[in-house]
Amino acid sequence: MMETFGLEKLGIANPKAVYRNLTPAQLTEAALARGEGKLSNKGALVVTTGKYTGRSPKDKFIVDTPAIHDDIAWGSVNVPIEKEKFDAIKAKVIAYLQNREIFLFDGMAGADPVCTRKFRIVNELASQNLFIRDLLIRPTAEELANFGEPDFTIIAAPGFKCVPEIDGTNSEAAIMVNYEEKLVVICGSQYSGEIKKSVFSVMNYLMPKEGVLPMHCSANMDPETQETAVFFGLSGTGKTTLSADPNRKLIGDDEHGWSDRGIFNFEGGCYAKCIDLTEENEPEIYNAIKFGSLVENVVMDEETREFDFTDDSLTENTRVGYPVDFISNAQVPGVGGIPKVVIFLTADAFGVLPPIARLDNDAAMYHFVTGFTSKLAGTERGITEPQPTFSTLFGEPFMPMDPSVYANMLGERIEKYNTKVYLVNTGWTGGPYGVGSRMKLKYTRAMVTAALNGSFDNVEYKHDDIFNLDIPQSCPDVPSEIMNPRDTWADKDAYDAQAKKLAKMFQDNFEKKYPNMPENIKAAGPKAE
Q1: Burial, 416: exposed, middle or buried (Cβ in 10 Å; 0-12, 13-18, 19+)?
Q2: What's the DSSP call for residue 33?
Q3: Residue 240 annotated as catalytic
Q4: 216 has catalytic annotation
Q5: Which residue in 88, 99, 111, 263 has a CA-CA distance of 20 to 30 Å to 510?
């Protein structure tokens, strides 16, 4: 009789076959046999995800039940769905999975044993099962044998398409989190990041209840002193790239918790962007693309099986998922001490923020809740006006509770442990996108190194009145002329106008989203006038 590993409790009573915790070789072979992807010349499994090449925030819902209603910050991000609608869609997904091959992965989130949660991932696709095997913490044989009941289950069935008129969804895709039932249902989208971020959303709900701050950040540590740093930032700001420093141990690239014991990775893998990837600039990520990793939406030559990392014809959000130990200097298990330095990363396409600035506690709270970066208006030629993005806590889509819950926890920790905080701009200098140039990675690395080793403790600072920031005037291995952004612009009046324009955007966003924030935090932000 076929072992179903508890699937019947979900209602999947008649699967064609159930495969639990297969090896990368077995999953790769299964995906190839099922036509889900192809092998690259580096041995990685390569897939395309169809119309969904990134997260679909308008299709994410939280099931509104009395038990969790008061915990959730409802609004345009945390959108409710009635339990009846959830149950109806779940029933259809369960029916869809009958008589199909099911790929199960039982793994964990949370490298700190005190905070570890067990997740069961139910996949329709072998390729997605390989992905989540790469991304979660993989159990030992003994842990798997004694796994028992999961704390949370995620069902991912991208082949099932919702019918909005019938199902009450916004499209054929739906990502629905039921915190009370401890179940996530994902359908209609093959983008694997939806599975990863669903785990994150669950941890972001569970951890604060245990006094642990969940963070959308990367983290690394000094191999000798064990001093730890965390890097907050939205997609494209350099969070993964900067934390994968060959001179430091990588704890993790995206999701962590901060307890009174230190920080710990939620994951056991990395999910790195591949656009314009080169071995010279990002050797750790480049070399992690090999057998056992899953590559999404990177264009590959059919004959040579070589990647073209510059080709964004499928999406700019090209990705690779791989186990963290594919990085040669990974810290396994992913635990570190209390962070000595916190870095907020922003990619400012307006070209007006300094490459690095020191933040006091109030300014740290301001920039944490603001979560600024900017994106390009589009990929069409001639469109050069950047678009500001303000994502609360540098991870608003994944934070189900009120922002003040997370912000207060960070503020308390920064003050308690005297953690230093810096704002680092990995974006443009010398002008906005289309005029200036992207900050050189080697300069950003040098500034981050200086922040970590204390080089900025005894240098001259200059106060920027518009952005209300303290800017160090020198940094080892960085030309002093780029430290002050206004000096890099040929047209100083144009800089002043652009800077005031962005400062006003900061002010308007803050007044709209955080009207009840304490005055001392509000006063720590930019001043347009």
Answers
A1: exposed
A2: H
A3: yes
A4: yes
A5: 263
